[in-house]
Amino acid sequence: MARPKGQPKLGGRQKGTPNKDTQALFDICAKHGVNVFEGMVMIAAQDPDPDRKFEKLEKIAQYLYPKRKAIEATLDPEGGGGFVIKIENYSQKEVK
């Protein structure tokens, strides 16, 4: 059941706390001295094909930088002098 509006959130994980599976993965990597991002960058850097290197670095960047929303601004077709702003969220769309 959802909590009523205006009521504070009670219980559950604090914001930013990893779930059990994520924490277990962090612990395994730390135990073996593995830095996943460093490994991904090393693999991408050693790839001689620039297109594949770019694709690999692009995938790494998704973990480091937030995705931006596409914003399109056009003049009002009715000639009213105003702007029509269209905002689309592409973060859920699959990149090919």
SSE pattern: HHHEE
Mean pLDDT: 80
The N- and C-terminal alpha carbons lie at a distance of: 38 Å
Spans of at least 5 consecutive residues with low confidence: none
Fraction of residues in H or I helices? 25-40%
Rounded to the nearest angstrom, the radius of gyration is 22 Å
Number of strands: 2
Which descriptor suits the 3D outline? flat
Number of helices: 3
**Biggest sheet: strands, sense, closure?**
2 strands, antiparallel
Strand content: 5-15%
Strand order of the largest sheet: 1-2
Number of domains: 1
Strand-pairing-aware structural class: alpha+beta
Write up this protein.
The mean pLDDT is 80. With 96 residues, this protein is an alpha+beta fold. The chain has a two-stranded antiparallel ribbon with strand order 1-2. The chain is built from three helices and two strands; from the N terminus they run H-H-H-E-E.
Task: Briefly summarize what is shown.
By secondary structure, this protein is α+β, with helices and mostly antiparallel strands. 40% of the residues lie in helices and 12% in strands.
Keywords:
flat
SSE diagram, text form:
Layout: H1 20-31, H2 36-46, H3 50-64, E1 70-75, E2 83-88
Antiparallel strand pairs: 1-2
